Amino acid sequence: MKRILAVRRKTRVFGRGTLRFLRPANESVVAHVRSYEGETVLAVHNLSSASQPIELDLRAWAGHTPVEMLGESRFPTIGTQPYVITLGPYGYYWFRLQPPLSEQAFYGIENTPL
After folding, report:
1. Max CA-CA distance within the chain?
2. The whole model's pTM is what?
3. Distance between CA atoms of 56 and 82, rounded to whole angstroms?
């Protein structure tokens, strides 16, 4: 719980900026994207007591790499096809969407080593 609160406190995008809900076909999963000052976070939450697969339309972020915020695990880069994620019972992911290197240079974002 302490790690979750620490991530939440240091990530300003959670309380500010734009909020865009995604509309996945699986109604057991809630997904949204928040953006603020060049930072973008994708949050995906399974509201079911059973594991759930989800396909998300993330074409708007093609080329970005989702980096899981609690463990810093890098997930496959987003392409033009639906992005597939499987969530455990009541599971969730918070992803920082790391832009391609060309956009990082434009926004002045450092490429954090993992």
Report:
1. 42
2. 0.79
3. 5
